[in-house]
Design a protein that fits this description.
This protein has 128 residues and is α+β, with helices and mostly antiparallel strands. It has one domain (4-98): Ribosomal Protein S5, domain 2 (2-Layer Sandwich). Helices cover 33% and strands 23% of the residues. The protein contains four helices and five strands. The protein has helices spanning 33-36, 40-52, 70-88, 93-98; strands at 4-10, 13-21, 26-28, 31-32, 59-66. The chain has a five-stranded mixed β-sheet with strand order 1-2-5-3-4. Strand 1 (4-10) and strand 2 form a beta hairpin. Helix 2 packs parallel to helix 3 (70-88). The radius of gyration is 18 Å and the shape is elongated.
Length: 128
């Protein structure tokens, strides 16, 4: 099987995923994913599409991750892996879609407005 690549994004994080047959090794920026993501919750998030489609340990995944924080990066990687699996076998799509793994999360940080301390917070109003 040739290398299948896909893109996943979340907030400002971008994950470029390269998936090929192998032993189930996930490498992120030339580091093991368990070393890259410190908590078990993030390990679960990354492995979720593989567990749902019974592909844990079947593919080697190489990832380039940029931007964002660790949670955004983990969720971007999850979307990238989901998209790559669907490219391999379109029958995985309904399983992943049902769990909400095929949708790009559109929520972004709102920009700070001029004359205000934050995006929505206002300075205290004074009548006099």
């Amino acid at each position: 099987m040739e290398v299948v690549n896909a893109l996943g994004r979340r907030k400002t994080a971008v994950a470029r995923v390269y998936l090929q047959d192998g032993s189930g090794k996930i490498t992120i920026n030339n580091r093991d994913f368990k070393e890259f993501f410190p908590t078990a919750i993030l390990h679960y998030v990354v492995e979720q599409p593989l567990q749902l489609t019974d592909n844990l340990g079947k593919y080697d995944i190489k990832v380039n991750l940029k931007g964002g924080g660790i949670t955004g990066q983990a969720e971007a990687l999850r979307l990238g892996i989901s998209r790559a699996l669907v490219k391999i076998d379109p029958e995985y799509r309904p399983i992943l879609k049902e769990k909400g793994l095929m949708k790009r999360d559109p929520r972004m940080v709102e920009r700070k407005k001029p004359g205000q301390p934050k995006a929505r917070k206002k300075f205290q109003f004074s009548k006099r």
